[in-house]
Amino acid sequence: MSRTKALRLALAGATMLAAGAVAITPASAQVGQASLRGTITASADNPVVEVTAVEVATGIRRTVAAGPDGSYNFASLRAGTYRLEIKLQNGTRNSDNFTLNVGQTAGLDIDLTEVSAGAPADGQAPAGDIADGSQGAPEGDVIVTGSRIRSLAGGQVGINITTRLIEQLPQVNRNFLAFADLAPGVRFIESADGSSRIQGGAQGSNSVNVFIDGVSQKDYVLRGGLTGQDSSPGNPFPQLAIGEYQVISSNYKAEFDQVGSVAITANTKSGTNEFHGEGFFDYTDQSLRDRRPTEIYPNKIPKVETTDKQFGVALGGPIVKDVAHFFVTYEGKRRDTPVDILPGNGIAVDSLPAQYRDLFGSYSSNFKQDLYFGKIDITPTDGDLIEFTGKYRDESGYQISNGIAAYSTATLNSVEEIRGTARWQHTTDNWINDFRVGYEDVSWSPRPATDGIGQQFRRSDVNGSSINTYDLFRIGGGLNFQDKGQTGWTVQNDFTWTGFEGHTIKAGVKSKWVKLNTLEQNLLNPLYSYDLNLPTADGFNDEIPYQLQFGAVGDLGDPRIRSKNWQLGLYLQDDWDVTDRLTLNLGLRWDYERTPAFLNYVTPDEDLAAISPENYPNLINADYDINDYISNGNNRKAFKGAWQPRLGFTYRFDDAGRFSVFGGYGRSYDRNQFDFLQQELATGRFQRRTFLFQNADTQNPCLPTNPVCIPWDPVYLTEEGRQQLAAAGTAGGREFRFINNDLKVPYSDQFSLGLRGRFNPVELEVGYTRIVSKDGFVYLMGNRRPDGSFFAPSPTTGAPQGPGNFSPAGYGAIIIGDNGLETKADSAYFKLTKSYSASSPWSLDATYTYTEAEDNRPNGDQAAYFLLDFPSASDYPFVRSGAVPRHRFVVAGSVDLPIDMSISAKFQIESPTYLRTIVDRSDPYERAVVGAEAFGLGDRWGRRQLDLAITKYVPLNFLYDQARVRFRLDIINAMNDRNYVDFNNSPDDATRDAGSPSIYRERSTYSIGGNPPRTVKLSAGFSF
After folding, report:
1. pLDDT in tens, 358-388
2. pLDDT of residue 368
3. What element of type H or E holds 335?
């Protein structure tokens, strides 16, 4: 049997396994692939027979038959540089080289009947010189395509980040996602501990998804969006391996799954027909940066140790020329990062007792990461492409962030990730099949750096009838002890059919078997909480806590929670060229997931007894039915309603497609993070014991009738005392988690409308988007008072008090899980793009976004999902969102200079943070969510940063034709803007004193969080 025949038989078997139908096999061109279609006009006596797209670097060829009218359609091509070979009935014509970007849907029409002397129609390629006679052009005659490829992008809103931008733009951390914020409505946010995240609009980072080589990197357990990014300073992928990527902030096509806000699709580099390699070393330390404000105010101190070393190598080349290639890369990171430990809400350190003052100041956290990636591609025939990729990630560190938690509370961080994918793409004249098998194994396992008891101090500011409560600081042992991750296999098949004129029909199926696991023992070190408003002899209460929390293994089984999930996704997409000016993108997607740990869960008898009407009558008249949250193992069903229409259109006003109007509507379902769902099981297996102490809480005193409300005894500071408490009560005060049996899946509805115009060499886009997300997961307070109510006046202040102290006898609080988080964001944006080319060696990308957003979170934390202040999520008012700035402008550009130099820059500016907090008032009697914009820099902006980079290349032609050394200087935050992150959030604070020198909305500390001072980074590299 021939090799080609064997491949086709195997492909047929794979396709039948993946689908089971004919005609429309559930499959499609993969996420992130480019496509190119158009019409080639030739003379009637010498028509176009077939068109071949040749990838210049690798020699990979894809051939399609031309239609009777000269139409052609390459539905799935890797991003890269191509040329077209146009086979005529007599002779062959060749185009010059042109570039297709990742995810680009491009159109290119060519008229071979025009002579080169004639000016080409804008948007069409001039035909070049025509040979004499009627036999057509000679072999090798070049058709100049220029830069006139038109966009058929439809309703999606976003941007392409090219290899040029990744390599040239200044940055400090080598996270390839750092430039995603050039897309409208997207932010790349860095924290003080070095961790980073992508955020789209008003939604949380868990609604983001990243696809690398068409494979989802979604984190199913944690909230970082993609695996390994929850609280990690590490990079998700080696930047040397990324060719380019596309950022879509709304209205993606049906191929995209498990995403509610931003979808990012990246393609990795491949080896070529020539050996190429490169290496780099980046370095900066405290001597290369300005002082941070906390190293100047209130007293000048030595700079905190800061070291950042990043290094890497890459090599690619042929295994067999035009047939097989390889690419491998490694990147490492070693960092010591300064952080600021300061009291909450701007309270002055000098106002605290002397024994605590040394806990505050500037410290350093450290981090180590190693990243590996490898890829082999094989093209055994002109119609087949086989790829194998693998990634390994390993990181560790001593991690702590800016905030109120002392250095002793730090976490020993650990992340390990293994991924591998095998892919087979088969191409014929009018269909493409893409079959893929993937494996992943990811673990995230932080541990406390210090063991021992923890102490947390709370303060309440009482101003007349208003009360604002906040945590002041925390000391002692760490609390973060977890081990969570996901392991599993993915099989997906994508099919594209181009056999119907004017249609590119895509269909796909993805099935995933993934084992999710969590181990959460966060209170192995006990935590004692103190009310500083409690009167004491020295005026600072650190003797009598109002609450003790500690964890212990329960009687309900293994504390490690496991769930063997199954996911299924199906989609159908038709990109329909209705006319030569109107293109419709019509898609429909359906997703399904089974989570056995949730579906098969049976509420323990002990829990049922504790909340029964006999033992806890408070729920008889409650405003919710606890039976909706009680599971018998058979009354929960996996959500089957995730139907997601994805519709878009482009209408071109002129034949050349220079001006167009576009728009779209799409619904996109995400998923409920397993970290939310597993808590229902985990609270019974590793139990959080909570005990309250009498007469120690001035705001919400516990009732002595509650078995866990007891007199304080210093013996409870010891392990023996805590064991006495655990043995004394029915359950030692452990909490409950109950989740709604009819739990839905969060989703977003996305609308877009805009105009695009091409004014060579500049492209402009102006548009409007509306994104509404609903059914986000929340945990609510399930306790109720004896009469079933939620609020009652506090006996000490008269302000509203929740039912937190009215738990079932001998137990902690009832916490119920449900849907209810909502966000709404309306954005208008303007985008300008000028692409780099050899003939015009400069680039510019600029985006301005105006956003009006609101949500029903209790504060400005985009990750908040504990809503314990009101009876239900619907009782939280919609307030301007604190997760997204009202105004944001970002611009980036680069230019080549003489003597082999280049300069690049990135500038970003946004409006101030919107502060939100909850205030209780006795007159008027209310609990209110209060918000206001913080005072920014000069009262005009909240964050501003200008980054610069200068690169000098030194050719080494005597070694190798393309060998060169590069030296680079990055200046991060060149203007040394001080982008403060802490603001006074006490709405009734209008008085400055020594203990609290700021008032509401003012900067409360000198901390700049993850915003760097002016920093110089030195780099050197070699490439050939």
Report:
1. 999 989 899 999 999 999 999 999 899 999 9
2. 96
3. strand 324-341
Handedness of CA 176, 181, 182, 184 (dihedral sign): positive
Length of the chain (residues): 1024
Q: What is the DSSP letter of 911?
A: P
Q: Which structure tokens are listed for 855?
A: 């949500």
Nearest to 682 by CA among 519, 487, 482, 445: 519
CA distance 363 to 341: 8
The Cα–Cα gap between 992 and 995 comes to 8
Separation in Å, CA 804 to CA 435, 486, 689, 702, 931: 54, 35, 15, 9, 25
Report how far residue 590's alpha carbon sits from residue 745's, in angstroms, rounded to the nearest whole number: 12
Alpha-carbon span 1006 to 980, nearest angstrom: 6
Residue 727: what pLDDT? Answer: 77
Range with the poorest average pLDDT among 154-158, 174-178, 507-511, 605-609: 154-158
Confidence check: pLDDT of 781 > 70: yes
Beta bridge partners of 387: 377, 423
Q: Which phi and psi angles does 509 have, rounded to 5°?
A: -135, 140
Percentage of the chain lying above the pLDDT 90 cut = 67
Arithmetic mean of pLDDT over the chain: 89
Helix (H, G, I), strand (E, B) or coil at 96: coil
Neighbours of 172 (CB within 10 A): 19
Residue, of 461 and 620, whose pLDDT is higher:
620
Burial class (CB in 10 A: 0-12, 13-18, 19+), 317: middle
Question: In angstroms, rounded to a whole number, what is the distance separating the alpha carbons of residues 234 and 223?
Answer: 15
CA distance 360 to 191: 19
Contact call for residues 238 and 312 (beta carbons, < 8 A): yes
Please name which of 328, 304, 303 lies closest in space to residue 314, comparing C-alpha atoms. Answer: 328
DSSP codes of every residue in 215-259: EE-B-SSSSSSBTT-TT--S-SS-GGGEEEEEEEEE---TT--S-
pLDDT of res. 22: 27
What φ, ψ does residue 410 adopt, rounded to 5°? Answer: -65, 165
> Measured between alpha carbons, how far is 275 from 257 in angstroms, rounded to an integer?
37
**CB distance 690 to 770 below 8 Å:** no
- With cut-offs at 50, 70 and 90, classify the pLDDT of residue 115: very low
Sequence-distant (6+) residues with CB within 8 A of 251 are 154, 155, 156, 157, 646, 648, 664, 665, 666, 750, 751, 752, 769
How far, CA to CA in Å, does 264 sit from each of 102, 175, 180?
10, 14, 8
Burial 246-282 (b: 16+ CB within 10 A, else e): bbbbbbbbbbbbbbbbbbbbbbbbbbbbbebbbbbeb
